[in-house]
Amino acid sequence: MRAIQITEFGGPETLVEVDLPDPEPGPGELLVEVDRAGLNYADTHQVENSYLARMELPLVPGGEVVGRTPEGRRVVVLTTDGAGGYAQKAVGPEATAFDVPDGVDDLTALSMVVQGATAWLLLRRSTHLEPGETVVVHAAAGGVGTLAVQLARRWGAGRIIATASTEEKRALAVELGADVAVDSAAEDITAALREANGGRRVDVVLDMTGGVVTDQSLAALAPFGRLAFYGMASREQPTPIAPAALLSHTTTVTGMWLPHAFGLPGRVVHRAMAELFDLVLRGELRAVPGGEYGLSEARRAHEDLRARRTTGKLLLDPSR
To answer: For the purposes of burial, counting CB atoms within 10 Å of the CB of 242, is it exposed (0-12), middle (13-18) or buried (19 or more)?
Structure first.
């Protein structure tokens, strides 16, 4: 089969197209003939081995695929490490597979399994959004951000403040339901967020940027405010937080990594996916297409991701 494989860690230049034997599913795993694979910013960390799960070489990157099993089931599934989605066939645990309802296309299925579930968990479990609260969504034109804006609006946020790097991205965030959009390159994010909230501090921040954005977002939180940290796109560490600072400002900082959610009791991710698919089928939640790349264009896709030239959900087509 055609696949992208890396044999050394690094940047987009390490992504090389090769021919490989079909992967073999182990106990409790599914073999999937891939129709589309999802492209995520986390993939760029995976390729340089800078993400939370340490990788072993050689590996086929990519964390999610949609396609059919040999029995004909149409599923979206998170893939097994090393046998990822940048290939014509992939393997994933049955426990992370979800049957795709009729009426849900490939783009939407892939948007929901990582970005949608992440947005759901950030708002429902990490920050416990209450009706009427002000929510800040950083990177609001990205895969998680576009869905988080829509969900926050549906779940009663009093004011949604989006941040994004271009006028086009900020306009998209407002179209999706944000009340106001702020330039993510603002010199003083704290001041920009408070100004966008009528001079008041904010209640909830969803942050996947890191570095100074995290520092300044924390400074914008109201008492009992919560910041949920779920990525580090800037590749910069925030300033260490002293417990006394949390106490003095009555704030909460939480982290969220999707794989941990599969260990929660009550099949939480499955409940999230069922609710997300239901919202999609009722026309109350939509995935934002961000473009499609052929397998041979994987390197360019990573270059675009790292340069922040993308919006919405990106797909990889292994047939070309």
So the answer is: exposed
For the chain, state the CA radius of gyration: 19
Q: How does pLDDT run across 140-186, given as a tens digit for each residue? A: 999 999 999 999 999 999 999 999 999 999 999 999 999 999 999 99
Alpha-carbon torsion, ordered 252, 257, 259, 265, to 10 deg: 10
- pTM across the whole model: 0.94
Domains of the chain: 2-100+288-317 (3.90.180.10), 116-260 (3.40.50.720)
- DSSP states of 146-164 as a string? HHHHHHHHHTT-SEEEEEE
Buried/exposed 274-288: b ≥16 CB within 10 Å, e otherwise: ebbbebbeeeebbbb
Handedness of CA 262, 266, 268, 274 (dihedral sign): positive
| Cα–Cα distance for residue pair 210/204, rounded to 1 Å | 16
